[in-house]
Amino acid sequence: MSYRLLVLLFLTFSSTAFADWPQWRGPHRNGIATSTGLPAELNENTAPKLLWETTEEIPSDHYGGHGSVAIADGKLFLAVVWHLDEPTETRKIDGDVLSTLGYRGTNSIPKETVEKMEHERMNLSRRLRGNALDEWAKKWVEDNLDEKTQLSLGGWVISRFKKGPSAIPLSVYDTLRTVSNKTFANQTEVEAWIDEQNFDPAIREQIVKAIPATKKVANDVILCLDAETGEVVWRFEQKGFPSGRASSSTPCVADGKVYAALSEHIYCVDTKSGEEVWKSKLAGKKGPASSPLFLDGKIIIQQNMLTAFDAATGEELWPNKEIKGANQSPAAWKNLVICNSAKDLCGVDSETGEIVWQQPGGGDGTPVVSDDTVVVSSRLDGKNLIAYQLTEGGAEELWAHGFLARRYGSSPIIHDGFVYHLGSERHICINLESGEIAWEREASSSISSPLVADGKLLVYENRGGFISMIEASGEDYNNLGKAKVGALYCASPAMAGKSIYLRTPKSVACFRFE
Fold it and tell me: Which of 21, 88, 242, 318 could disulfide-pair with 353, CB 3.0 to 4.6 Å?
């Protein structure tokens, strides 16, 4: 990290912030916590104990996203687009209904393969039941889908075979999608439309049952909790827009303000009073998952385009419409903003918003910077983890590794000369300088981003059910044990002192090492 950026961070965050976690991925936005005194391993005696858990239910996923928490000056901050179901006369057959009915897009499967799948589903032998059907379906997937499609759609294809002729035909989904943006006046009107389609009676019943008699409404909420007790200090709330789990941003705390991107606006709120300082309109149809970066008096965020706002006033300083995306969170190196876009990794002048360089990349992960090196996870085939040497005018590829996974959203960590990527269903350690793989293991870690503290990596496994401790060493893979935490697996843990702060599917919780 450059001297200039160190000074900036020191001035930006309070003197205690280095023991805090004031933004996405921690004080330096790199997943590194300054905590010490952690146990040598995790077992029943040394596992962190639950210190507190919020009693009010805090929604997640489709009703509250997957944003993580920030901790500063003894307070915890969480931004949630808080969805509620409200009774309504109107009816919709929208994406949520289609999802409930089991719809998945099949564009990645050749048309002839889809036709073959549906033909064989309708003509399965009656002898294929139970385990025999399971094994047959698995083999069909292996024989007919490429490896990448197996990861994304294999389970769905198997589920259709297991339902056999009772599965909803793909043509029915196509018909339903033609009205996914239509609002029907009432139940009678939507059922009349369904009847006009002459669906099979059993299919009709499934569709009618899946259509809710409610509509989603939402409020933009910023919660401030006491980090020691979990008690609510204040709650900021304004009317929002139902944006679903797309809104999964982690707030940023700087200079006594908390900055939070929610459904339609980005807000600046005073950390002591919870009073609004300013709000600015966001671009796009849904709130972003991108988490704001505070840099040189600016708030920088991906909101369908990379955008800088004046941190004091909320005025938009510059947008860069070439850098598209809403899930990617930016990082900083000297005077550059480094950010994944939908297809590239970009270095952007923080003053003007102009692109200084572009390199292969693209994806949802946050770049991690160490001195003059940046490492980024990517969806790019054959280059899913890439290291670049940074200069004032560009970035030169040092090495890249490819691997097949369903998701590539987990962000890497650089620690003591090694890169750790603990996601995409694997744990991998790479020598930063040489690019050689030190060790690699299959693992049940998917999309959340790990942290490192006291020479130990902490990462979710088993869909957030457990947090595992792994030695941060390039010598060998050494799993030091795990503890049950029941975390929201798409969110990521935060750490301050000996406390781990995390979201569960219905709450915020604090676990503490003794």
Answer: 318
Whether the per-residue pLDDT at 227 is higher than 80: the answer is: yes
What is the C-alpha to C-alpha distance for residues 123 and 276, in angstroms, rounded to an integer? 62
Give the CATH number of the domain where residue 489 resides: 2.40.128.630
Place of tokens 């987990």: 410
pTM surpassing 0.90?
A: yes
Residue with tokens 């962190």: 48
pLDDT in tens, 143-183: 999 998 999 999 999 999 999 999 999 999 999 999 999 99
Structural domain that includes position 168: 91-212
Residue 70 lies in a domain: no
Under DSSP, the state recorded for 165 is G
Per the CB < 8 A criterion, the answer to whether 447 and 423 are in contact is: yes
Q: Does 250 fall in a domain?
A: no
Estimate the crossing angle of helix 130-144 against helix 111-122, to 10 degrees.
Answer: 160
Answer for the pair 398, 390: CB distance below 8 angstroms, yes or no: no
> What DSSP designation does 484 have?
E
Distance CA 308, CA 82 (A): 26
With residue 111 as reference, give the H or E element that holds it. helix 111-122
